């Protein structure tokens, strides 16, 4: 068996019981996953949500889950929950995923591809965000599943920096807040569970600008790759969350 295939098989087995599908909280693959009520006339749409860090993919993915009854498949939370995993025997630049993330660099494709493929095999309809991040991953995804709608959120760089550096996340349940808007009722305390609100290490300004540069170099070409897909729609992501959701929902209903 080729070395690449052996590596992929190893990673799939390694991640089989890890948290890789997230809908507001981390759930094991072995548990039943939350799925909201299906919208009238829809049948398990397969949705890809694209956009730079801070574009609102997490917020809008939650809306999609609730409205269309699909599962939320994301790599970001899975990688953050496994930041300290030892990958030193996988011929990688660093020994843990966290070392890539803290520097604003991308985690190796072999690890990410295995996470996504395992998640999609269990999903009966999904919204996928955080993947693909480069053209090679886009080609991998084409071999995993067909897509009904491909939605791209467009937001300017300085708006993204303001959003991300001001973001605070509950250390217990993962709920997002912001220091200027969407503030909690009590400073530094999560409204949902009472957990402590923290700034993620990859939300400092230096790391954010690094991440946006990586996105422009690697993931912006992915958006161009999908522009000719019949399900592709570009969405203005600089409106309020409700305004963006109205446009997203209408696009899904047209395409899926």
Automatic annotation (TrEMBL):
CDD domains: ADK. ATP binds at residues 54-59, 167, 239. Residues 167-202 form the Adenylate kinase active site lid domain. The keyword Nucleotidyltransferase does not apply. AMP binds at residues 75, 80, 105-107, 130-133, 137, 200, 211. This is Adenylate kinase. Consists of three domains, a large central CORE domain and two small peripheral domains, NMPbind and LID, which undergo movements during catalysis. The LID domain closes over the site of phosphoryl transfer upon ATP binding. Assembling and dissambling the active center during each catalytic cycle provides an effective means to prevent ATP hydrolysis. Some bacteria have evolved a zinc-coordinating structure that stabilizes the LID domain. Its EC number is 2.7.4.3. The lineage of its organism: Archaea, Methanobacteriati, Methanobacteriota, Stenosarchaea group, Halobacteria. Keywords: ATP-binding, Cytoplasm, Kinase, Metal-binding, Nucleotide biosynthesis, Nucleotide-binding, Transferase, Zinc. It is found in: Cytoplasm.
